[in-house]
């Protein structure tokens, strides 16, 4: 009789332990997002509760989502953004140089055409 009650107590303890353990585990991404001051804390928290109904199938994605954000560097794309800005400025410089060189080539073509016309008129007059 005592062992029956003891087994029932152990069974209840394990059930309660698992229940609270699962709830504590599902909240880990939310706690990470709070610690990192994530801009999507509420969405991560709600998605964590939804993950209880999906048997935590989306939980790894929530963990990744929560850990990608850092307050000091955001999503981590600032380096790429800075490189893109530098490339954009270099492209602008190169396009200005191309326009300048195109103008010079046009000037040289005009000068060459005038020289050709003057030599043609001089040769035409000598014949």
From TrEMBL:
InterPro entries: UCP028770. This is DUF3302 domain-containing protein. Keywords: Membrane, Transmembrane, Transmembrane helix. The chain crosses the membrane at residues 6-25, 46-66.
């Amino acid at each position: 009789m005592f062992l029956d009650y003891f087994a029932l107590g152990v069974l209840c303890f394990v059930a309660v332990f698992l229940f609270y353990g699962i709830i504590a585990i599902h909240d880990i991404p939310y706690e990470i997002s709070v610690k990192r001051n994530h801009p999507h804390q509420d969405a991560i928290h709600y998605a964590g509760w939804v993950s209880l109904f999906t048997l935590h199938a989306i939980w790894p994605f929530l963990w990744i989502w929560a850990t990608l954000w850092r307050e000091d560097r955001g999503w981590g794309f600032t380096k790429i953004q800075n490189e893109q800005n530098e490339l954009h400025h270099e492209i602008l410089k190169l396009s200005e140089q191309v326009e300048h060189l195109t103008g010079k080539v046009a000037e040289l073509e005009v000068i060459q055409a005038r020289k050709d016309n003057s030599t043609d008129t001089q040769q035409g007059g000598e014949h």
